[in-house]
Each structure stands twice: as C-alpha cells, then as structure tokens.
Design goal:
Two copies of one chain form a homodimer. Chain A contains seven helices and two strands, in the order H-H-H-H-H-E-E-H-H. By secondary structure, chain A is mainly alpha-helical. In chain A, strands 1-2 form a two-stranded antiparallel sheet. The structure holds a DNA duplex. Chains A, B: This is HTH-type transcriptional regulator YxaD.
Amino acid sequence: MENSLEMIELELAILIRRITSASGNKKIGHLDRSAYLILHQIATNGAAGVKSLAGEFQLDISTVSRQAAALEHKGYLYKIPDPTDGRAYTFQITELGLKELRDDKRARMDRVAEVTKNWPEEDREVFGRLLRKFNHGAISS
Amino acid sequence: MENSLEMIELELAILIRRITSASGNKKIGHLDRSAYLILHQIATNGAAGVKSLAGEFQLDISTVSRQAAALEHKGYLYKIPDPTDGRAYTFQITELGLKELRDDKRARMDRVAEVTKNWPEEDREVFGRLLRKFNHGAISS
DNA sequence: ACTATATGTTTGTATTATACAACTAATTTA
DNA sequence: TAAATTAGTTGTATAATACAAACATATAGT
C-alpha cells in the first residue's frame, strides 16, 4: 500500500509536470485544455452558464468568464439569455465549435494512441477506468 | 480501442485541469510541484546541473535555473562547482532539503491515500504501474 | 597561440492562466 | 421598498513559463 501510494503520487507529479510544460500544454489543434473541456462539457451536457462551468472545473468564475468570452469571440459558443433571470446567460456550442471539438478530440486521441501504441488493449481500458475513478474522488484538496 | 482512447484522453484532460487549478496546484507542504520534483530527482539520482534537470522535466533551462536558485536560497540545495568546467555547477540536496522532501512526499501520499481510500489495493498497484508506463512513453509532443 | 564558435548558466522581458476584489445589473428577502 | 444576495464582467496582482540577450568559460580551426 505504501509502495503503490508512493508510485501513484510520484508518477502523477511527473505526468502533470510533463503535460503542463508549456511546450505540450498549449493548444493541440486550436483549443487549449480549458477551451477543450468547456466545449466538451457543453456538447455533452448542454448549455451552461459560467457559474456551473466554473464549479465543474473548480476554477474561479472570472477565469471561466474570460475563457467563455474568448470562445464566443471565436464563434465556438453563443450566449443565450436566461428568460427567467435577466442577469444570467447560458453558453451553447455552435456548429463551428462542434467541428473544432471533434477535430481537437481526434488529435488528442491520436496522441494518446501514439503513447500507448504498444500497450495491450486491456491496459488502455483499465487505465481509462482508473483515471476516471481517480478523478471522481479527486476533489480532495 | 477508440473507446478506451477517448476515455483516457478525456480523463487526462480533467485530471490535469483539476490538479493544476491554482487552488490545488500550489504547495502541498512547503514545496510546489517543480520544487518537489527537483528535490526528488536529486535525492534519487544525485547532484545535477540545471541543464540535465531541465531535460528531465522538459522545462526551459531558464525556468529550472530560477527554481533551483530559489531552492538554494531556502537552504534546500547547495551549489557545487564542476571542477572540470568553470561554467558548470551541480546542485546537491541539503539535510533540510531532504527533510522537506520527506515531509512533502508524506503529505502527497496522504492525499492520494484519501482519494483512493475505498479502492482495492490491486487497483492502486495497477494505476501506479500504468501511470508510470504512460509517463515513460509520454514524451510524444 | 589566437580568434571564432559553442556551451552552461543567469538575467531581462513578455505571455498566459489563474485568483481575488471591485463593480454592475437583476433578483430575492425581510 | 430597502437591503441583501446572486450572475456575470472587468481590473489588478501573482506565478510559471518560454524566448532572447548577456556573460563567462571551453573547444576547435587555423
């Protein structure tokens, strides 16, 4: 148990360091990670406002507000006023946004495929499952 | 295969987003992730110069130079001039640095333990192993 | 040996993602 | 209706990073 914890924590630190080194961090296609996740979230779960998105990603509302505004500016999202609350908006994804999301996801998947190209398929499945499980419990700090 | 790739890439993006959200990103004990990895690397593999550390972490040399200087300033590292090359130094870890590293590692392991507290031990072992395997192939981009 | 080139490191500058705080407008509550 | 709360935006500060310039030393070519 101590050993597996030690390996997980070290490898997580290395993973984060590598993936977020600015060289690899930035856009994969046209989307940086935040943009990608926002588009993915909206494409998957429907229109959402900055507050709910910020909660989802554990980011400050102001951060998401700027990111969403940037995506709107690029034509990937558009704002829908909330008819029941004059302060509130939701963002919905555009056709262009969907296209960018698809292209970006494909590029990201290709990178994962490259890194895991010699893995048995079972390892890929287990890795995905455990990452998901970890994320679901990972709101610790 | 498509499915597992899709899950891995999405969960990786989520993991990075969560772990690097500034709330959880920062220092765990006294060390941020870069500092932790530098101390860990030196403690494990011996004294090293900024060039080799930068290569190890895929960071720019200038970035590591500043990080190492900060760790030296705090008394966690000290500089050893390379006797065969008047330009070069290596950094070695101090007793204080070792203590910080131990404390920090303990705190990081505790966080992992918390997140995985309901996992069967086998899942922890497999997760650690797959993370390591992924990292070893992960210098793609 | 001398000059030109290359190398290891540090320092200057710009960018970017983020948080926190101040602000605006609209809604809810007392 | 006045006060408090809420959704969102904008201003400001911080930190990690890369890239470029500078510096000191080493190496190579002649």
